[in-house]
Amino acid sequence: MAILKTYARLWVDDLDASLPSLRALVGAEPDLRFAFDSIELAAIGDFLVIAGPPEERARYAHASATVIVDDLDAVVAGLTAAGGEVTTPEATSPTGRFLYARHAGGAEVEYVEWVPELVDRVTDSLRSAALCTC
Protein backbone atom coordinates (compact mmCIF):
# COMPACT_ATOMS: atom_id res chain seq x y z
CA MET A 1 0.00 0.00 0.00
CA ALA A 2 1.28 3.45 -0.90
CA ILE A 3 0.09 6.92 -0.01
CA LEU A 4 -0.26 8.94 -3.22
CA LYS A 5 -1.26 12.29 -1.72
CA THR A 6 -2.39 13.82 1.56
CA TYR A 7 -4.74 16.79 1.77
CA ALA A 8 -5.24 19.26 4.59
CA ARG A 9 -8.94 20.02 4.88
CA LEU A 10 -10.21 23.60 4.59
CA TRP A 11 -13.83 24.23 5.57
CA VAL A 12 -15.46 27.15 3.74
CA ASP A 13 -18.90 28.62 3.21
CA ASP A 14 -18.37 29.44 -0.46
CA LEU A 15 -16.04 27.47 -2.73
CA ASP A 16 -15.94 30.06 -5.51
CA ALA A 17 -15.02 32.83 -3.05
CA SER A 18 -12.18 30.77 -1.53
CA LEU A 19 -10.50 29.54 -4.71
CA PRO A 20 -8.90 32.79 -6.02
CA SER A 21 -6.64 33.22 -2.99
CA LEU A 22 -5.74 29.52 -3.03
CA ARG A 23 -4.92 29.69 -6.75
CA ALA A 24 -2.54 32.55 -5.98
CA LEU A 25 -1.07 30.75 -2.98
CA VAL A 26 -0.35 27.42 -4.70
CA GLY A 27 0.19 28.82 -8.20
CA ALA A 28 -2.14 26.33 -9.84
CA GLU A 29 -5.70 25.51 -10.75
CA PRO A 30 -7.66 22.88 -8.81
CA ASP A 31 -6.77 19.29 -9.72
CA LEU A 32 -10.39 18.36 -9.28
CA ARG A 33 -13.72 19.84 -8.38
CA PHE A 34 -16.99 18.03 -7.78
CA ALA A 35 -20.19 17.91 -5.78
CA PHE A 36 -20.99 15.13 -3.32
CA ASP A 37 -24.32 15.00 -1.55
CA SER A 38 -24.97 18.67 -0.74
CA ILE A 39 -21.37 19.83 -0.47
CA GLU A 40 -18.83 20.97 -3.06
CA LEU A 41 -15.18 19.98 -3.01
CA ALA A 42 -12.05 21.15 -4.78
CA ALA A 43 -8.53 19.80 -4.48
CA ILE A 44 -5.91 22.46 -5.05
CA GLY A 45 -2.28 21.98 -4.13
CA ASP A 46 -2.28 20.15 -0.80
CA PHE A 47 -5.71 21.45 0.23
CA LEU A 48 -9.08 19.78 -0.01
CA VAL A 49 -11.58 22.64 0.15
CA ILE A 50 -14.98 21.56 1.43
CA ALA A 51 -17.88 23.98 1.00
CA GLY A 52 -21.53 23.97 1.84
CA PRO A 53 -23.95 24.68 4.63
CA PRO A 54 -22.36 24.23 8.09
CA GLU A 55 -24.76 21.43 9.04
CA GLU A 56 -23.77 19.47 5.91
CA ARG A 57 -20.02 20.09 6.37
CA ALA A 58 -20.36 18.84 9.95
CA ARG A 59 -21.18 15.36 8.61
CA TYR A 60 -17.57 15.11 7.39
CA ALA A 61 -15.72 17.13 10.04
CA HIS A 62 -14.69 14.16 12.20
CA ALA A 63 -11.72 13.38 9.93
CA SER A 64 -8.53 15.38 10.33
CA ALA A 65 -7.22 14.72 6.79
CA THR A 66 -7.94 13.07 3.46
CA VAL A 67 -5.34 10.54 2.36
CA ILE A 68 -5.23 9.18 -1.18
CA VAL A 69 -3.99 5.58 -1.33
CA ASP A 70 -3.38 3.05 -4.06
CA ASP A 71 -5.09 0.14 -2.23
CA LEU A 72 -8.00 0.81 0.12
CA ASP A 73 -8.32 -2.85 1.09
CA ALA A 74 -4.68 -2.93 2.23
CA VAL A 75 -5.29 0.20 4.34
CA VAL A 76 -8.21 -1.48 6.12
CA ALA A 77 -6.20 -4.64 6.73
CA GLY A 78 -3.25 -2.69 8.14
CA LEU A 79 -5.34 -0.40 10.31
CA THR A 80 -7.44 -3.17 11.81
CA ALA A 81 -4.35 -5.29 12.45
CA ALA A 82 -2.90 -2.35 14.38
CA GLY A 83 -6.06 -1.87 16.48
CA GLY A 84 -7.85 0.67 14.30
CA GLU A 85 -11.41 0.46 13.05
CA VAL A 86 -13.50 1.54 10.09
CA THR A 87 -15.96 4.16 11.36
CA THR A 88 -17.79 4.89 8.09
CA PRO A 89 -18.07 1.92 5.74
CA GLU A 90 -16.74 2.00 2.23
CA ALA A 91 -18.77 4.01 -0.26
CA THR A 92 -18.18 5.55 -3.67
CA SER A 93 -17.96 9.11 -4.93
CA PRO A 94 -17.06 10.63 -8.29
CA THR A 95 -13.37 10.19 -7.39
CA GLY A 96 -13.47 6.51 -6.36
CA ARG A 97 -13.88 4.38 -3.23
CA PHE A 98 -13.54 5.90 0.24
CA LEU A 99 -14.08 5.21 3.92
CA TYR A 100 -13.36 6.77 7.28
CA ALA A 101 -11.19 4.99 9.83
CA ARG A 102 -10.09 5.67 13.38
CA HIS A 103 -6.50 4.76 14.21
CA ALA A 104 -5.65 3.03 17.48
CA GLY A 105 -4.45 6.36 18.90
CA GLY A 106 -7.77 8.06 18.12
CA ALA A 107 -7.04 10.01 14.92
CA GLU A 108 -9.78 9.70 12.31
CA VAL A 109 -8.89 9.94 8.63
CA GLU A 110 -10.72 9.69 5.33
CA TYR A 111 -8.97 7.23 3.00
CA VAL A 112 -9.71 7.38 -0.72
CA GLU A 113 -8.69 5.07 -3.56
CA TRP A 114 -9.04 7.20 -6.69
CA VAL A 115 -10.32 5.90 -10.00
CA PRO A 116 -7.36 5.10 -12.31
CA GLU A 117 -7.98 8.09 -14.61
CA LEU A 118 -7.72 10.50 -11.68
CA VAL A 119 -4.55 8.84 -10.35
CA ASP A 120 -2.95 9.22 -13.78
CA ARG A 121 -4.05 12.83 -14.26
CA VAL A 122 -3.13 14.15 -10.80
CA THR A 123 0.08 12.18 -10.31
CA ASP A 124 1.27 13.19 -13.81
CA SER A 125 0.59 16.80 -12.82
CA LEU A 126 2.53 16.33 -9.55
CA ARG A 127 5.49 14.78 -11.40
CA SER A 128 5.54 17.66 -13.90
CA ALA A 129 5.48 20.24 -11.10
CA ALA A 130 8.33 18.46 -9.29
CA LEU A 131 10.45 18.50 -12.45
CA CYS A 132 9.76 22.15 -13.26
CA THR A 133 12.73 24.50 -12.91
CA CYS A 134 10.44 27.53 -13.01
UniProtKB/TrEMBL annotation:
InterPro entries: Glyas_Bleomycin-R_OHBP_Dase, VOC_core. Residues 3-114 form the VOC domain. Transmembrane segments: none annotated. It comes from the Bacteria. This is VOC family protein. It comes from Micromonospora zingiberis.
